Give the backbone structure.
Amino acid sequence: MRRTKQPAEVSLPRRMRAEMVIRSLFIQATNNFERMLSLGFLFALWPVIKKLYRTPEERREAVLRHLSFFNTQPYFANCILGVVAHVELRGGEGVDGEVAHIKKAMMGALGALGDDLFWTGLMPAAALVALVFYGALPSYAFVGAISALAVYNVFHFWTRVKLFHVGLRLGRRVTSYLKMLRLPRFAVGVKIAASFLLGAFTVAVIWRVAHAGLGGYGAAAAVGIAVFASVIVQSLGIRPGLCWYIVAAAATVVGAITA
Amino acid sequence: MLEGSVVLACAERAICVAFVGALLGLDNIAVGQFMLAQPAVGAVLVGYIVGEPLLGVWVALTFQLLWLGQIPVGAYVPPSAPITAIAAVGLAGPGAAPLPARAVAAACLAIPVGVLAGRLDFWIKSRNVGVLHRSENDLLDGRPLALGGAVVKGVANFFLKDFFLLLAATFVGSIILTLTLKHLTPSWYRGLAFAFAVSPAVGIGAALKVYWKGRNIAAFGVGAAVAAAVAAIFAFVI
């Protein structure tokens, strides 16, 4: 059954768009192993469903359409949310198939891109901003924490808000916009920046150890040995937690004997 | 002998850490992902709240990078870095032992708590299948409020899981550490102080395993050189 009335144009009031973005913050609240983010996605899309479908039958059909398996990176889910809202608002025949096709086509690609960009790129890079600060000036830790939050959440909110709006405006043509952004290249750049910060953080840790009474060369040697040991032990397939126990135990024994 | 004031102090700290930690823990999966739960922010925030910001900083330095690049494959579930870090701050307890000894001992106990938190996240996601089915039935029966209810239940599940885990672990663990650490000899304290100083290096090793390729290697070298130059200028000026 199709909905009774089609909208004149693909747009939503500002308040409704804001509500959808806020609702999308809870997209993982009902994350489950059967259909992953599907219920959270429907929760974020609900203002559109409520606006378009008035009868119980229409809503039932819409609910079934959006409760199919859905999994992607949570920030990039907003892009798909915008595109799906566009398709729903545009209406017409074949909405069912189009929604399913869009979700299937976009969630895998955006999931991989989002994981790479945010979880192994921007998140560690922003954290390293704080860590460099903590290493060098631990007494001003709150400045480091605020800097990290600011750096990360600028990109985070841009992704959530901007891509939702672009998806809503362009519909399926959002792929051209995403291509234009060259996000995979940006992810490579972010990892280079993270590596730069990791180098600075290593020196900051040496600085801390040197000030703990070991002197510059002693500190560099101690940190170098610990980093090398960590890499070697993890290369043997030992997990990082166990690796930490090994290095901490060895350092405790060495420190107790040589002090 | 366990004094009542120690138990009371540990209980106060456990309740405070469990409540704040469970709120911050929501940011890890259930709500937002603003980076508040990450050790670099969450541990420092909890450190400020319990009045030990330097403990929070050390925990952040140690745990932020440790599990970078660890993904759940097969039966392996990586520990929850946010909960490990928050638990470590709580576990260090209000004891009289020096900060380095308390911090390293707390980190030793916090890693299994993080492993358990990671497994409980899996359990919650399994439980959420039931939430999905119930709300699907309610929605199909024309009860749209079920959608909001499901989200509230999902958020509550994640909150309660972290709250009770942190409460139990922090309370019991901080009492154990308060009772045991005071019996260590000075040489053990010195050993733990050395472990305290070098343990962030393990996280650097874990991060290098992820980033050590292509142009990242040169960027690492440039970053180290720039920081060393800044440190040298700073030391010279001082």
Summary: The CA atoms of residues 234 and 240 of chain A lie 6 Å apart. Chain A has two domains: 14-214, 215-259. Residues 4-8 of chain A have pLDDT under 50 and may be disordered. Chain A touches chain B through 94 residues (CB under 8 Å).
